[in-house]
Amino acid sequence: MISELVEGGTLAYLITIGDRLSILDNGAANYDARQLAGLAPDVLLLQPGGASVPDYVPRLLDVLEHPPYVIPTHWDDFDYPLTEPARDWGGLTALEQAVRAASPTARFVRLDHLESFAF
């Protein structure tokens, strides 16, 4: 049950491909900055949310040393088939604005279903 999930800490995955690329998947709408300190991923996978956490996006980008790429995840309304274009459930624009304000040099890369992106 969802009520049994433990709150607190950081749920994130750091994927490193050789010495060429690191990707941080921040899978939760909150984080503990101490657990992320020292990470400087090339790519941040970031979901909309965190609206109830003060300065969520700027603080996260600061602690991660402003990753050059931010790719939004979990932003689409998954009630529609993958054969249709992704539809924003309402958080994508706010997330993009927050990223651009906090880290103007970061590239915000919106991907549709099954779309790819090369670095």
Walk me through what this model shows.
With 119 residues, the chain is α/β, with parallel strands linked by helices. The chain has 3 helices and 5 strands, in the order ββαβαβαβ. The protein has helices at residues 33-36, 56-63, 92-102; strands at residues 12-17, 21-26, 43-46, 69-72, 107-108. Strands 1-2-3-4-5 form a 5-stranded mixed β-sheet, covered by helices on one side. α2 packs across α3. 19% of the residues are buried.
Write the layout of secondary structure elements.
Elements: E1 12-17, E2 21-26, H1 33-36, E3 43-46, H2 56-63, E4 69-72, H3 92-102, E5 107-108
Helix pairs in contact: 2-3
Q: What attributes does this structure have?
A:
globular; alpha/beta; 3 helices; five-stranded mixed beta sheet; 5 strands; 119 residues
Terminal Cα span: 39 Å
For the largest sheet, list the strands in their spatial order.
1-2-3-4-5
Mean pLDDT across all amino acids: 88
The proportion of residues forming helix, as a percent range, comes to 10-25%
| Total of helices | 3
What is the rounded Rg?
Answer: 15 Å
How would the global form be characterised?
A: globular
Query: Approximately what portion of the residues adopt beta-strand conformation?
Result: 15-25%
Order of helices and strands: EEHEHEHE
Low-confidence stretches: none
